[in-house]
Structures are given as C-alpha cells and as structure tokens.
Amino acid sequence: MSGTNLTKRKRTDSGDGDASKDDNPTVTRSAEYWLEDGNIILQAENTQYRVHRSILSRQSTVFADMFSLPQPPEFGPGESLVDGCPVVHLQDSAEDVGNLLDLLYESISLQTIEGHISISVIRTMLRLGRKYDFKKLWDRGVSLLEHDYPYTLQKWDEKPKPLISDEPGVIFDVIAIAHENDIKSILPPAYLTMFLRNSLPDIRDGRERLQRLVKAIILDWLRDDELPRADCDSFDKCSAALMGKIKYLYGQDACKLLEYFAYRWDKAELGAGMCEECEIYGNAEYEEGRRILWYNCPQYFELDS
C-alpha cells in the first residue's frame, strides 16, 4: 500500500461550488457516475466521478485505510472541494476507472456471460485489483483467465466455452496481462493458442521450438520399436499404416503439428489403419507425451521462475 499514489490536491474554490471549472476547464463529469448522493470524487485523467466512499472501502483495503485517516486541515469547509466533496486524483486511466465502477456498481454478471467479457475489463480487474487490493476483483480476474486458458491438460481437453470476448488480437493481450501480473500458469495454453491461430514472423521461433518438441515427445511413438506390437494380428498392415503416418506428419507445417498437442487422441485420428492392440499402445504413448509436454512447457520456454 505504501507504493500507491493517492493524493488529494488543494483546489481553489471560486465561490460557485465548482472548483474544477477554474482549475482545469477540460475536466468533465462522468455521465454514468456523477451520483448526487456521492461523497467522494475520483479523478482519472480529465474525467471526474462522484461516487460513495462506502462502495470503494467495502472491497478495497487501500481505499478503506485512506478514508479512515483524519482529514487534513486544508480540507476544511469550503476548501479544495468540488460540490462539497473532496477530490482524489488517481494515476490510472479513465478507461480503467470506468471499468472499475461498472464492476462495483453495476455488478456485471461475470458468471453467466459467455464470450462477452471484454479483455479491457479483465485488465482492470487485475491491474486495479492488485494496486488497490480489490481482492475479489483480482481473484475473479485470475479465475476468468484460468477458465479460458486452463493450466491442466484435462480442463484444456474439456474445452469450456470461453468467457472472454474473442476480439482481434486478444491472445496477445492475454499473454501481456499474464506477464504483467505474474500469472504464469496460463502462459503455456495461451502460447499454444497463439501459435495455433497465428503465423506472424515474430512468433516463428516459438512455433518452431514447439514443433520440434511435438515431434520429439508426442509423436515419437511412431518410430517406437514396440510397434507393431508383438501380439499384432495384422503386422504388415500396421507397419504400412505407421510408415504412412510418419511420411504424412513429418511433412506438415508447424500449425498442423501443433494440433497434435492441442487435440486428444480421438480427435487426432491417428489410430486409423492400425489393429486394436497397436492403437491402444499408440493412444497411451500419445497422451503421455501430451501430458509431459504440457506440464514441462514452462521449463521449455523458460517461464518458470
């Protein structure tokens, strides 16, 4: 809390009850959050919001501590006030503060809206949640990211319906937010999503590294001496099927190979043309390779601190 810059600046009262007009003619009042019974004014950039101390202090220990301090003498009646309310200048964007007030006052239904939660709202929940200790907002923001980018392979395979809006370039925002807030658990699935959706030059190296890992860990069973199996009832057929898969898969581009990291065995359709015993073995080796790669992604990409 000591690093949080919350300052009340002395304002000159012009006598008409609206000091902001004299100090800065460009300051505007929020249309949504200028509440007549509000008792504190927040200013972010050139926008002011008249809101309630109790709403802020109920969920934020930083605001609660600030409001509990004795009011300085220079904030006596008629001094440094706008419409009788003290002004708190925040070093945050108007977008963040607007999002914050939407979350606190409008009670956005973050539980039920699928695919309609803006990434800017998630950013606000984490950035201001951490800065001002809005613990519930922070926890919910992390939960939303972990829902859409789960850190366990089982949840990834279940493919829950996304809650975060799929805006253009949103995956790059997700990765930036994860790094900014040290939420490393979502980085492997976020990077995988980025590699699957994009082929930009600036992600080429990461794609190629992951491509090599997919070949070495997930698809290495294709060259396993255990195949065809000793109890294979169609040795020649399975041998031909394996050779065909090797020629096909190793000629594919990075995106196609990455699908074998993202998809379960039944969706990958790698068992076609093989007998039951060989398919069972391939299935087990394939899924074990996916698990190994998934849980070691932070190490492979130097994401673990």
Automatic annotation (TrEMBL):
Region called Disordered, residue ranges: 1-26
Protein name: BTB domain-containing protein
Superkingdom classification of source: Eukaryota
Species, as recorded: Cyclocybe aegerita (Black poplar mushroom)
Domain BTB: 38-105
Basic and acidic residues: bias regions: 12-24
